[in-house]
Amino acid sequence: MFDNLSVKLDRAFKTLKGQGSITEINVASTVKEIRRALIDADVNYKVAKEVTDSIKQKALGRDVLIAVSPGQLLTKIVAEELTLLMGETNVPIDLTGNPNTILISGLQGSGKTTFSGKLANQLKKQGRTVLLAACDVYRPAAIDQLKVLGEQIGVEVYTEPDEKDPVKIAKNAVKYAKDQGKKSLIIDTAGRLAVDEKMMEEIAAIKKAIDPSETLFVVDSMTGQDAVNTAAAFNERLDFDGVVLTKLDGDTRGGAALSIRKEVTKPIKYISTGEKMDAIDLFHPDRMANRILGMGDVVSLVEKAQQTFDQEEARRINKKIKKNQFGFDDFLSQMEQIKKMGNLKDLMGMIPGVGKAIKDIDIDDDSLKPIEAIIKSMTPKERENPDIINGSRRQRIAKGSGTSVNQVNQLLKQFEQMRKMMKTMNKMGGAKALSNLMR
Predict the structure, then answer these.
(1) pTM for this one?
(2) Which of 127, 335, 368, 401 could form a disulfide with 377 if both were Cys (CB 3.0 to 4.6 A apart)?
(3) What residues contact 51, with CB distance under 8 A and at least 6 apart?
(4) What is the pLDDT of residue 358?
């Protein structure tokens, strides 16, 4: 989402490269470029000016340390200001109540129903019993969509097909959730326009009737500054607790994510990308600021790995690495775990320095399919002991996987290099080996 902004900010910092000190002249030039980059990203002009004025003031008020270049210092200041702009810290949702009730609101087409499913899936993974309630009585496909999502993630969906009053459905859903001992109830409502007075009265009535512990406003981040204006209109009527930004993987300038917190004074609580049910993340302003500036987001990457990787499987793999018995079946298992973590390009972008390097490279999840095909065309014995794969076996594997012998050779070579690296790390010890490998 922030690729264009990242490139422009990087260009702005380059004006300070080679400069021995921060001066009013070189800072003014850099800050001007930063302001232009923010405005191009659809950040409100007033907000962009306030942020860049603060950056300029802080930059001129700091001494440059011998070990830190002016460019590095300004990058740090910009990271601090972007973090402040987006809310400083993550604000978790309120999970109190019996049941804990979460009301989902937003515009038509903002992705409310999909987000409801994602949130239910996340809460379920946290050990909570969840109920989804379909309160969109206007869009016929909405109830069916929620049912499909509920079935996909193994969460019950409460519906009343013959009832046309969403307020009644919501109240009945709360009673049903309580009777069934559900810990969380997520109520998906119809999309509405801020100018539609009748629909705005209806969502306000639902909130008043059920008194939710959390009201979330879902907004399509691709609508840019319009998303901020809409959020402000909804907040006047609903006084919601937090914002959810959807479609962050789309071709968007990111202005909503940067300025919605400042203009609506409500925290961004979740970000959502893609259609997969696990494509949902808590919003951390500091981590997002680091990603925008190409500094990576290792903490989020580690958290995703912890959520996805099976500890027992990790121990099993570790034992095989120590015994130098890591085979293609183990490699395939690890690939499956990585795919569950999300989009490959997004994951690689969380590694410091990698985001800029791959910004123009198209990395598709399907790029792993030829590797999978090659491995699955091997016999169990070949996957366990790749050293036995001779020329004739390579030709058979290439033919069976629909790839070339050259591709098979390349995979075998890379796999052998990886095994040697693992063996080296095992001998040297984790931290020391990692340090050497990074060098």
Answers:
(1) 0.66
(2) 401
(3) 35, 38, 43, 81, 82, 85
(4) 47
